TrEMBL record:
This is SMP-30/Gluconolactonase/LRE-like region domain-containing protein. Keywords: Signal. The lineage of its organism: Eukaryota, Fungi, Dikarya, Basidiomycota, Agaricomycotina. PANTHER family: NHL REPEAT-CONTAINING PROTEIN, NHL REPEAT-CONTAINING PROTEIN-RELATED. Residues 1-19 form the signal peptide. It comes from the Eukaryota. InterPro entries: 6-blade_b-propeller_TolB-like, Hetero-Diels-Alderase-like. It comes from Collybiopsis confluens.
Length: 338
């Protein structure tokens, strides 16, 4: 997500220092523009529909957009969430059934309105044929501080993870009942050094290893880490958390087909690949010295037969006047090849 003026200045300088000592390999690929939004539009997250279109959230306005990489038709506004100011995490739980976190926050000063966050279901099943969507509020979070990333725990049971970045907690939400509970809260989810930002846990996603054990992977922006914790079927911890990579001012991420993490590093404007076994970090695209992926915030792979190895990303463009080059928020694509 976007961060305040003083914070982003710190992020930029610290990112350069981190890049000097991280065990990075570098195989930088070019990123192509899918769609550029108006200057000042702060893109936050994205999800890919089975039909190939991209749903992208915005935190500088309460908007959800669709962008089609296969057609030069610009962006289509899917919905404006009246009464709110920001749209954060987004996931697809069943076919064309998306869930988003919406709330109120002064993004310029990184000041949320506590208890203002809710979750909506966005039913896109009739959009391609009738141009309509059905928007339903399914949960409220009266104890929330700043809800950010979302991840799937059990699609069949309607269970998802929700990260509260300020509280440093990860909750499990039942989208069928609207009931949620704090499932994970440890020393690696809370805000902390080396950064002074209140943004702790950020992206949250699950995967299964070769032995069958499920893990929740999560990024922590303040602690500049990617970590994981083994989990039970109800989403609670099944062991101790561990750091997989450090020195990366991380936002959201996804997994490739080999189980590597494709991490958006908002602080250094890079996409890096992290091998969870060897803990090797490889820069895939972007650079602290380039605006190509300026303040990249999230990444997802395409779902069509022709773009399953293409990584789509959102970037907020550094729209804060932080002393560096500012570019419009955008959705871009990085063809990774085979």
């Amino acid at each position: 997500m976007r961060v305040s003026l003083s914070l982003i200045t710190i992020l930029s300088s610290v990112a350069v220092a981190f890049c000097a000592y991280l065990p990075h390999k570098r195989a930088t690929l070019a990123a192509a523009v899918v769609h550029t939004f108006d200057t000042g539009t702060v893109m936050e997250n994205l999800a890919i529909r089975a039909t190939g279109e991209i749903l992208a959230t915005v935190i500088s306005s309460p908007d959800l957009w669709q962008v089609d990489p296969a057609a030069a038709t610009g962006a289509t506004l899917i919905h404006t969430f009246d009464g709110f100011e920001c749209v954060f995490g987004i996931i697809e739980l069943q076919s064309d059934q998306f869930y988003v976190l919406v709330g109120n926050a002064d993004i310029e000063n990184l000041t949320p309105v506590p208890g203002s966050f809710v979750a909506f279901r966005v039913d896109m099943s009739s959009f391609n044929t009738a141009g309509t969507t059905t928007i339903t509020q399914i949960a409220s979070f009266p104890d929330s501080q700043l809800l950010n990333g979302m991840g799937i725990l059990d699609a069949g049971q309607g269970l998802v993870y929700v990260a509260d970045s300020f509280a440093g907690t990860i909750s499990v939400l039942d989208v069928n009942t609207g009931v949620s509970f704090v499932a994970i809260n440890n020393s690696l989810t809370v805000p902390g050094a080396p950064m002074t930002t209140p943004l702790g846990v950020n992206g949250v996603h699950t995967t299964q290893d070769a032995s069958g054990q499920f893990y929740l992977y999560f990024s922590n922006t303040a602690q500049s880490i990617l970590a994981r914790v083994p989990i039970h079927s109800d989403g609670t911890p099944a062991g101790d958390p561990e750091v997989i990579a450090s020195g990366i001012i991380a936002d959201d991420f996804t997994f490739d087909s080999d189980g590597n993490i494709m991490q958006a590093v908002i602080g250094s404007s890079e996409i890096v690949k992290i091998n969870p076994t060897t803990k090797t970090v490889t820069t895939i695209s972007g650079s602290p010295d380039s605006t190509e992926l300026r303040s990249v915030s999230a990444a997802q792979f395409g779902r069509l037969s022709g773009d399953e190895t293409t990584l789509y990303v959102t970037l907020n463009g550094g729209n804060l006047g932080d002393g560096g080059a500012v570019v419009p928020g955008a959705v871009k694509m990085i063809p990774l090849g085979s």
